[in-house]
Design a protein that fits this description.
It is a single chain. This protein has a single domain, classed as Domain of unknown function (DUF427) (Metal Binding Protein, Guanine Nucleotide Exchange Factor, Chain A, Beta Complex). It is built from no helices and ten strands. A hairpin with a 3-residue loop joins strand 6 and strand 7. Strands 1-4-5-9-8-7-6 form a seven-stranded antiparallel sheet, with no helix packed on it. It has a three-stranded antiparallel sheet with strand order 3-2-10, with no helix packed on it. The chain is mostly beta strands. InterPro entries: DUF427, DUF427_sf.
Length: about 110
């Protein structure tokens, strides 16, 4: 990690639910919480708890020097709403096979 830049990943037992347009896209009691310097706290949801059948892979990819290359998925009215790191950097390997949403309700 760059000096002063930290990423921590912890197992959470909080309930995370993602709803868009009245439709539940994901719901999990076993998300990972990722905290990164300068970024909002993000919940990464296991693939098994995500309605992948509702999402369409996007051509968008972004690169983070700390996490790796992200792939994105979209809904018809919400492009690039979801992302994941198929081959994350070794320091954040736990987020492999987990999806993150821009909008998530945490309870």
């Amino acid at each position: 990690m760059a000096e002063g830049h930290t990423i921590t990943i912890e197992q959470s037992s909080r309930h995370v639910r993602v709803v868009h347009g009245g439709q539940v896209l994901a719901e999990s009691d076993r998300p990972l919480v990722l905290r990164e310097t300068g970024c909002p706290e993000r919940y990464y949801i296991p693939a098994e708890d995500v309605r992948l059948d509702l999402l369409t892979p996007s051509d968008t990819h972004t690169y983070c020097p700390f996490k790796g290359t992200a792939s994105y998925w979209s809904l018809p009215d919400a492009p690039d709403l979801v992302w994941a790191y198929p081959e994350p950097e070794p320091d954040v390997a736990r987020i492999k096979d987990h999806f993150c949403f821009y909008e998530a309700e945490v309870s």
